[in-house]
Amino acid sequence: xxxxxxxxxxxxxxxxxxxxxxxxxxxxxxxxxxxxxxxxxxxxxxxxxxxxxxxxxxxxxxxxxxxxxxxxxxxxxxxxxxxxxxxxxxxxxxxxxxxxxxxxxxxxxxxxxxxxxxxxxxxxxxxxxxxxxxxxxxxxxxxxxxxxxxxxxxxxxxxxxxxxxxxxxxxxxxxxxxxxxxxxxxxxxxxxxxxxxxxxxxxxxxxxxxxxxxxxxxxxxxxxxxxxxxxxxxxxxxxxxxxxxxxxxxxxxxxxxxxxxxxxxxxxxxxxxxxxxxxxxxxxxxxxxxxxxxxxxxxxxxxxxxxxxxxxxxxxxxxxxxxxxxxxxxxxxxxxxxxxxxxxxxxxxxxxxxxxxxxxxxxxxxxxxxxxxxxxxxxxxxxxxxxxxxxxxxxxxxxxxxxxxxxxxxx
Amino acid sequence: xxxxxxxxxxxxxxxxxxxxxxxxxxxxxxxxxxxxxxxxxxxxxxxxxxxxxxxxxxxxxxxxxxxxxxxxxxxxxxxxxxxxxxxxxxxxxxxxxxxxxxxxxxxxxxxxxxxxxxxxxxxxxxxxxxxxxxxxxxxxxxxxxxxxxxxxxxxxxxxxxxxxxxxxxxxxxxxxxxxxxxxxxxxxxxxxxxxxxxxxxxxxxxxxxxxxxxxxxxxxxxxxxxxxxxxxxxxxxxxxxxxxxxxxxxxxxxxxxxxxxxxxxxxxxxxxxxxxxxxxxxxxxxxxxxxxxxxxxxxxxxxxxxxxxxxxxxxxxxxxxxxxxxxxxxxxxxxxxxxxxxxxxxxxxxxxxxxxxxxxxxxxxxxxxxxx
Lengths: 411, 372
Ligand code: SF4
Ligand code: SF4
Prior knowledge:
By secondary structure, chain A is α/β, with parallel strands linked by helices. Chain A has helices spanning 15-31, 50-54, 62-71, 75-84, 93-104, 127-139, 157-178, 184-206, 217-229, 234-252, 276-284, 311-320, 328-341, 356-359, 362-373, 392-410, and strands at residues 40-43, 58-60, 117-121, 143-146, 263-268, 288-293, 346-352, 377-382.
């Protein structure tokens, strides 16, 4: 009973072209860093990147690279290579793909530029610690660990002191790596851009409150790359400013991200990178738009913790209170807030076997949300990069059944 | 041996043992599932730390809270809790270990009504000054919070006594391992494990007294012999399977040491009995043999394993890893490589709480041990 999607019913988002250009230029910069006497640091997606920009270091994100590998459907091959190296198939597929990629220079861009040093923050998971240890051994480069105690129910004074000291140690470390002083004026500028970038990213995402939503979670997955990789630069600020204008115009013109939005859904967890198009079309065929997600919005939650006059304190709070570093009940509050904010009819939860901190607890979140808001949810078992964990027919049936439920509920 | 029987009883069903035997003592019982728990502080407070091992089969209720890709240890512990088997616990503490334990803590807090729930947020890296300071702060915080909940002040004297007891306990356990390394016939693998596991749920003073007797007895009656059995070391997280020791012994080989959380990682590393007890404790937890969820140096775990294998003249190493355990799975390739480079053969056995058939296991062990 699903309607055919009229492919040409939705005009293309113009900004996409620009976004591709920016990302291409960024990777060219990173790959030619050596020639230009610049240093390259690999950093985790939740790592404090601002100090790197202050020091003119090019940050490279293996996780963003992992997403590209997934999207270009090269994940399985690389994961298998890692498995042949002795890494269990049960490990995070970003890690497996990256570890393998280093040895074969594979993937869509022929591998990442070699790092001069590594920066790892365990605020997203314990996996990155182990993964970066592997890479530090492989490349034989220094590893800085930014250790952010988990905040189940509190961010204790003791933990706060510890993280504070580490911000200073991090700066020391960078001064040593780069052989120059940390420039406080530049730090202020970078922090401003970081703040502004996150504020704009939040606005971009919030345009999806319009009905129909001009932007879907699938669009957000695409535009996300900038706030992750270039947070702290002017490029992000300029790009999102334009994107907001375009989205606002589309909202005014009632152009939705999908042709005929009848139902509004929320996505939880990382994207299934190799199936975004399939999933987007699948939901669209039911008139359902995924208007928001907990993943891309994690890159603007930190806004509340930035104190522009205090660089160190901003780093401490922003990077410790990150979405995956808090208790399940606080995650429930976030989801509840989003359900209301985006007027959502249902939740699609990606139970992602790669990512335990994101996925374990989802069953409880599901129940707690249902109880608090009455909003139903569906669980999709998959993996963000490793296609072998995606059973299309099963997921197809599950989505159909879920959409039937939503239709009955909403009428 | 009569002394052993107490450990065997405790190890057979640790939950029932902890409930029935310890409750007679009218002490509070605090559950935990990771050796980074500062047991000494719990003991000093007048409570007994009880390590949880989880139900091994028939996991159903936990499936409503934990995906199938959580390790079976955590699922088994959750099942035990949901079944009400752990209702006797007065408190539960979760030190920061792996991602799965972290979420277990949340899920526990939201579903299980244990009177006292505490997260001990230890540092993950251990090799910097600030991490060491934070280790002290985290221990001091735990002492404060536990004391407040129990309504007592945990005094320095009490801590020092607990430290002395743990030093005695750990030294004795190590002595037992040494006796067995010198003469693998002195004690079977199954019995050795019963001592370790039983200790983790018994009143530690009783455990220490019993091990002391056991050591005395073994020292008397078993002179070190140089047999020609193949000597093995086991490496991994927790190996809660006495059958594995039996199967290995059936091939004629002997396990002479281990790098396990339920083994040498529990007893290695004594605590200084001088100065401030919290500082001393924190130093022990920063310096002890690390588990893979912590960071001290890039090769420490491999160096340690190679060191153990050499010191105990092992012919080979068996990695016993729990499926879905990320920290251990990440370390396996480099540790194997370091063993290879040192000329020490190894094999990998991935298990869940429920073991594959004995026949299957025996074949694999036979094949490996024949090769040595
Ligand atoms: S996907 Fe999850 S486990 Fe993997 S690196 Fe990201 S946060 Fe860590
Ligand atoms: S076995 Fe591994 S995954 Fe399971 S609780 Fe222990 S460290 Fe965590």
